[in-house]
Amino acid sequence: MTTPTLAPERFEAERPRLRAIAHRMLGSLAEADDAVQETWLRASRADVGEVNDLTAWLTTVVGRVSLNMLRARRTRREEPLEAHDAPEDGDPEEEAVLADSVGVALLVVLDTLTPAERLAFVLHDLFAVPFDAIAPLIERTPAAARQLASRARRRVGGRTPSPAADAARQRAAVEAFLAATRAGDFEALVTLLHPDVVLTADRFVVPTPQPVTVTGARPVAEGAMAATGRARFTGLALLDGRVGLAMAPLGRLRLVLLFTVADDGITRIEVVADRERLDGVEVAVLDA
C-alpha cells in the first residue's frame, strides 16, 4: 500500500502563511525560510492520510520547528549587537518591507519574550490557533498556554501612553520625521525641526570615542539624511510610554530615537544605542 504523502503544490499553497508564522516567531526572513524548508522536509516524509486539516497540521509543524530554532538561539552565545545598517543575510529590501508591514515595534517586543510566550502569542493572537493545539507544542496545559499568551499581550501593550492630545502631536511629528528620512526629503525634515533643535547621540551610535551633540535644524537634518539606510529598518514604537522610533534589523533592537515635540516643532532628539540603556527602555506597540 502506498503511503499518502503531501503534494508539493498543496504545500506551496500554504507556504505564504507558514512563512508569515515563522517570520513572526523568528524575526528574520532568512531564518523563516529555513524553518519553512524544514517544515516541507518533515511534511514530505510524513503519512498525511489521517490528517483531516492540513492547514492546522502544517501550522503546528512550522510552530514546532520555529520553537526549536528559538530555543537553540537562546542557548548559543548572542552575537554582539553592532551598529549594522542592514542584515547581512537574505534580501535586505524584502526584509525591510516585511518588517514594516508586520511592525518593527512588534518584532522588537516579540524578541524579548521567552520562546514559549512567543509561540503562544503568535499562534493564538496573530493566527487564531486555539490553545488546545498550542499546548502540546510547549508541553503545557491549554490554561497555561493561555496565561503565556496573556503575559505576552501585556508586554506588547506596554505602559499607559501619554495623554491623547500630546500623544497625537508626538505621533504626527515622529511619523513625518520617519517618512521624510526614508524619502530623503531634506527640506521636509528642516520644516519639522525647531530652528534650535538639539540632537544627542551616545558613543555607540556611530561609534565615536565621545557622545555627539548637533544643534540646529539644518545640521540635524543633514545627519538624518545620512541615515536613510537605517530608516528602512526603523518603525514607530511606544518607548517608555511616548512615541519614538526603534531600529531593529532582523527584529533585534539596535537603537532608538527619543523625541521631544513642542508646538513649534521637534526640539530635541536623543539617539540611544548603548546596550545597557536599550535594555532599560520599555518598547511597546502603538495602537493602529
Textual characterization of the structure:
This protein has 288 residues and is of the alpha+beta class. The protein is built from 13 helices and seven strands. It has helices spanning 8-26, 29-45, 54-75, 92-102, 104-111, 115-126, 131-138, 142-157, 164-183, 186-192, 217-225, 228-231, 275-279, and strands at residues 193-201, 212-215, 234-239, 242-247, 255-262, 265-272, 283-284. It has a seven-stranded mixed β-sheet, with helices on both faces. Strand 4 and strand 5 (255-262) form a beta hairpin. The longest helix is centred in the first third of the chain and has 22 residues, at 54-75.
Given as residue ranges, the uncertain stretches (5+ residues, pLDDT < 50) are 77-88
Structural class: alpha+beta
Record the strand order, biggest sheet. Answer: 2-1-6-5-4-3-7
Number of strand elements: 7
**SSE arrangement, N to C:** HHHHHHHHHHEEHHEEEEHE
